[in-house]
């Protein structure tokens, strides 16, 4: 029992305590709630205040910004206004200034044109026009003087017995793009290094050679540029044709490296058949043009006063061949010998001389002869000539007295010669028996042929260059074979002998020119058939024109320099002064 009482007491105590605690907690909660309510009130009061202050700040800011912008805008506007104002002021000044300037310049111009200065200007203008006119006249005069200087130079050349040297630079051609390079692979790039810089000067750019000079200049009597036509080249040669009829021996010789344009210059280029007649004429070389000119000049002389014969020779492998001859079996192109006559002239024994009456006939015989000329394709030139070609037009002329005497003799001998006359102009007798009206005195001399002659003619005695009242002058037109370097032309086998003969004969020509230029006592004409054959032309009293042909490209520069050097040496030669053969000729 007491346990229960204690328990109740403890329990009641605890309840009491808990009730106490609860009351104190409830009081605390009440307290806190009151505090919370007060805080809420305060917060609401603060939020209200904050809101009020924010609204106020925003409107203040807005107001301020607007105020600032407005003021700066106003400022800017006023500045713009100021600037506009200044600008309009400046523009006004400018307009006034421009108007004033215009007015002033008008006034000045008026003044100038009316004043003496204007007269001076007019005078000056007149003087300028006068000077221009006189300059034009000076130019014309200069041209005339140049022409005169050229003529005087030619006369001097003639008086001193100089060899005339012309040079023709050929254009760059498709064949230049096919030249194999020295390294052996591919083709050499085409570079033009030789230029005709005036009508008498040629310049070689040597910068890529081992020479110490940058460029070399060569001067000749005439230099033809690549664009010069065949006609232009012939124009410069033409005066020599008149010399021929005036009684001089004339030789025109084309020299140059293989493929440099010698045959093109002397004969013209094939195929001419494809061209019109006028184009063909324009493309013709010196030989056909010279033949045409010769017959034109003869047509201006008394009829039957001149007779022309043509012969065609080639020097191949140092042997002379008569390309118009024919033996009993009909074989064309007989070998011939060259001799020196008692008068010191060189002659080909038994050479065929075909009489011709027109340029067309000359060309017919030439074509016949050319069929036999040696040609061979090489790496440099697909149609390379392997021989020297010499076309000779022999002009025989008579004085009117000789003509009359010949006619009387003709009548007297008529009966005696009636049987043999038929043979006079047969091919076999042509060489030994010229027409009877040309035989006024004994002309034959004993045969001096050093070796048996292969000609079918009865006596291959040398032809006299003239008999009393009959004069023979020769026009020799020479297309030399081209010098070549075997390595470049790619020639092998039998062709090597040809190249060797060509090069040796050209060396012999160079030696002869050198000996003549240095006035050596012995001139080695006999070192080759070519120089022996052309002895009269090179060293004798003939008028000789050397036509140098050169390729313009770097690939052939060594050969071109060699040709130009030979031309320069030839110009130094002072051979005997050209002599007229027919001083007494009156026709
Ligand atoms: N001035 C030129 N204008 C146009 N073509 C040219 C000229 N010169 C040369 N030719 C052409 O160049 C080529 C070689 O010329 P050509 O046959 O005359 O050379 P070449 O010197 O006679 O050679 P080779 O000594 O080997 O016979 C030809 O096809 C020719 O037609």
UniProtKB/TrEMBL annotation:
<dbReference type="InterPro" id="IPR027417">
    <property type="entry name" value="P-loop_NTPase"/>
</dbReference>
<dbReference type="GO" id="GO:0007018">
    <property type="term" value="P:microtubule-based movement"/>
</dbReference>
<comment type="similarity">
    <text>Belongs to the TRAFAC class myosin-kinesin ATPase superfamily. Kinesin family.</text>
</comment>
<feature type="coiled-coil region">
    <location>
        <begin position="114"/>
        <end position="155"/>
    </location>
</feature>
<feature type="domain" description="Kinesin motor">
    <location>
        <begin position="162"/>
        <end position="573"/>
    </location>
</feature>
<dbReference type="InterPro" id="IPR036961">
    <property type="entry name" value="Kinesin_motor_dom_sf"/>
</dbReference>
<keyword id="KW-0505">Motor protein</keyword>
<dbReference type="InterPro" id="IPR027640">
    <property type="entry name" value="Kinesin-like_fam"/>
</dbReference>
<dbReference type="GO" id="GO:0005524">
    <property type="term" value="F:ATP binding"/>
</dbReference>
<dbReference type="Pfam" id="PF00225">
    <property type="entry name" value="Kinesin"/>
</dbReference>
<dbReference type="GO" id="GO:0003777">
    <property type="term" value="F:microtubule motor activity"/>
</dbReference>
<dbReference type="GO" id="GO:0008017">
    <property type="term" value="F:microtubule binding"/>
</dbReference>
<keyword id="KW-0963">Cytoplasm</keyword>
<keyword id="KW-0067">ATP-binding</keyword>
<keyword id="KW-0206">Cytoskeleton</keyword>
<dbReference type="InterPro" id="IPR001752">
    <property type="entry name" value="Kinesin_motor_dom"/>
</dbReference>
<keyword id="KW-0547">Nucleotide-binding</keyword>
<feature type="coiled-coil region">
    <location>
        <begin position="15"/>
        <end position="42"/>
    </location>
</feature>
<dbReference type="GO" id="GO:0015630">
    <property type="term" value="C:microtubule cytoskeleton"/>
</dbReference>
<protein>
    <recommendedName>
        <fullName>Kinesin motor domain-containing protein</fullName>
    </recommendedName>
</protein>
<keyword id="KW-0175">Coiled coil</keyword>
<feature type="binding site">
    <location>
        <begin position="256"/>
        <end position="263"/>
    </location>
    <ligand>
        <name>ATP</name>
    </ligand>
</feature>
């Amino acid at each position: 029992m007491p346990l229960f009482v204690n328990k109740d007491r403890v329990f009641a105590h605890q309840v009491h305590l808990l009730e106490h605690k609860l009351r104190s907690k409830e009081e605390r909660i009440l307290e806190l709630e009151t505090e919370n309510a007060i805080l809420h009130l305060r917060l609401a009061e603060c939020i209200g205040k904050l809101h009020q202050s924010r609204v106020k700040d925003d409107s203040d800011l807005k107001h301020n910004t607007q105020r600032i912008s407005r003021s700066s805008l106003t400022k800017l506007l006023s500045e713009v206004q100021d600037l506009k104002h200044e600008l309009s002021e400046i523009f006004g000044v400018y307009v006034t200034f421009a108007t004033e300037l215009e007015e002033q310049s008008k006034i000045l111009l008026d003044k100038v044109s009316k004043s003496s200065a204007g007269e001076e200007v007019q005078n000056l203008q007149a003087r300028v026009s006068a000077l221009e006119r006189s300059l034009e006249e000076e130019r014309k005069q200069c041209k005339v003087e140049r022409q005169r200087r050229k003529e005087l130079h030619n006369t001097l050349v003639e008086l001193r017995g100089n060899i005339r040297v012309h040079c023709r630079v050929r254009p760059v051609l498709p064949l230049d793009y096919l030249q194999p390079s020295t390294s052996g692979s591919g083709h050499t790039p085409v570079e033009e290094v030789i230029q005709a810089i005036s009508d008498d000067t040629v310049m070689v750019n040597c910068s890529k050679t081992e020479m110490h000079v940058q460029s070399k200049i060569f001067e000749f009597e005439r230099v033809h540029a690549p664009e010069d036509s065949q006609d232009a080249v012939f124009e410069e040669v033409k005066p020599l044709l008149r010399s021929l009829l005036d009684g001089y021996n004339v030789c025109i010789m084309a020299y140059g490296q293989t493929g440099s344009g010698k045959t093109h210059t002397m004969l013209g280029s094939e195929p001419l058949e494809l061209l019109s007649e006028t184009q063909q004429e324009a493309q013709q070389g010196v030989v056909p043009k010279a033949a045409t000119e010769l017959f034109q000049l003869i047509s201006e002389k008394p009829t039957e006063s001149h007779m022309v014969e043509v012969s065609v020779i080639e020097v191949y492998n140092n042997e002379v061949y008569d390309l118009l001859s024919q033996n009993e079996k009909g074989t064309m192109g007989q070998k011939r010998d060259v001799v020196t006559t008692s008068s010191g002239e060189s002659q080909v024994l038994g050479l065929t001389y075909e009489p011709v009456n027109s340029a067309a006939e000359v060309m017919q015989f030439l074509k016949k002869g050319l069929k036999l000329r040696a040609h061979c394709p090489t790496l440099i030139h697909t149609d390379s000539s392997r021989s020297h070609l010499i076309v000779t037009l022999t002009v025989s002329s008579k004085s009117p007295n000789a003509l009359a005497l010949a006619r009387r003799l003709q009548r007297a001998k008529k009966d005696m010669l009636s049987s043999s006359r038929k043979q006079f102009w047969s091919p076999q007798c042509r060489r030994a028996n010229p027409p009877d009206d040309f035989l006024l005195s004994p002309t034959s001399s004993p045969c001096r042929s050093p070796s048996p002659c292969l000609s079918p003619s009865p006596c291959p005695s040398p032809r006299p260059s003239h008999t009393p009242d009959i004069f023979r002058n020769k026009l020799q037109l020479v297309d030399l074979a081209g010098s070549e370097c075997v390595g470049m032309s790619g020639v092998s086998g039998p062709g090597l002998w040809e190249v060797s003969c060509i090069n040796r004969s050209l060396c012999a020509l160079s030696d002869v020119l050198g000996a003549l230029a240095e006035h050596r006592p012995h001139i080695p004409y006999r070192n080759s058939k070519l120089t022996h054959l052309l002895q009269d032309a090179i060293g004798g009293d003939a008028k000789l024109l050397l036509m140098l042909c050169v390729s313009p490209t770097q690939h052939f520069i060594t050969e071109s320099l060699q040709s130009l050097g030979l031309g320069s040496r030839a110009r130094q030669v002072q051979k005997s002064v050209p002599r007229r053969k027919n001083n007494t000729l009156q026709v």
